[in-house]
Specification:
- The strands form three sheets. The protein has a four-stranded antiparallel β-sheet with strand order 6-5-4-7. A two-stranded parallel sheet has the order 1-8.
- It has six helices and eight strands; from the N terminus they run βααβαβαβββββαα.
- The protein is α/β, with parallel strands linked by helices.
């Protein structure tokens, strides 16, 4: 899928209260991950695998904690796709790598068997001059995402026949509805079953 860049280039390097790479913990981790890398591609790969594998998906471990910002996720070592995407963006941007947010609409485990937004990232690889979509949700027995340049291996297999789809928007800040549900929730399990947002224009 060709992504539509919705913001000017510099916006994909900015920090804010969600992508808070001005926080010492985030800055230190970004530098640590980059310290053994020889080039930008290796930094991208190192950051991706750190967020995918070292940060748990909160639903998978059945914890009630709700993390929002990149620094939250680093402190508690857990998050759902919305907050893990914030951390990945923060670590990439701290290393000067353009990073945006992308979304999918997927069938969601909920009390109403509803749809929900799923967050992932796109990273600009300067040598290839292309955006690479990466999903750092974290793998489990039915979700398998990996790092790849030429063929997307994202965890969700989109099923348009049941209403699932991928947005082609590449945006510089997380969607407001995804941050709002995190900020307004105190129990992850309850939120995941009942309050996950669907489409946000």
């Amino acid at each position: 899928m060709d992504l539509k860049q919705r913001n000017h280039d510099a916006a994909y390097l900015q920090f804010d209260k969600y992508v808070d790479y001005d926080h010492p913990l985030v800055e230190d981790k970004a530098k640590e991950l980059a310290s053994k890398c020889r080039n930008t591609l290796e930094i991208i790969e190192a950051v991706y695998y750190f967020v995918r594998d070292e940060i748990t998906h909160t639903w998978d471990i059945k914890d009630n904690i709700v993390t929002v910002s990149a620094s939250d996720v680093l402190v508690y070592k857990t998050g759902i796709s919305y907050s893990k995407a914030n951390l990945l963006a923060a670590l990439m941007r701290c290393n000067g790598i353009y990073t945006g947010f992308c979304y999918q609409r997927v069938k969601h485990l909920s009390t109403g068997n509803n749809f929900a937004l799923h967050a992932l990232n796109a990273i600009y690889e300067p040598d290839l001059r292309k955006w690479i979509r990466l999903d750092a949700r974290g793998n489990n027995y039915k979700f398998n995402a990996d790092f790849t340049l030429n063929e997307r291996q994202l965890g969700h297999v989109i099923r348009p026949e049941i209403g699932e789809f991928e947005f082609d928007d590449l945006i510089a800040v997380p969607l407001p509805s995804t941050m709002r549900v995190l900020e307004n929730s105190t129990n992850l399990i309850k939120m995941y079953y009942n309050d996950m947002p669907d489409y946000d224009a």
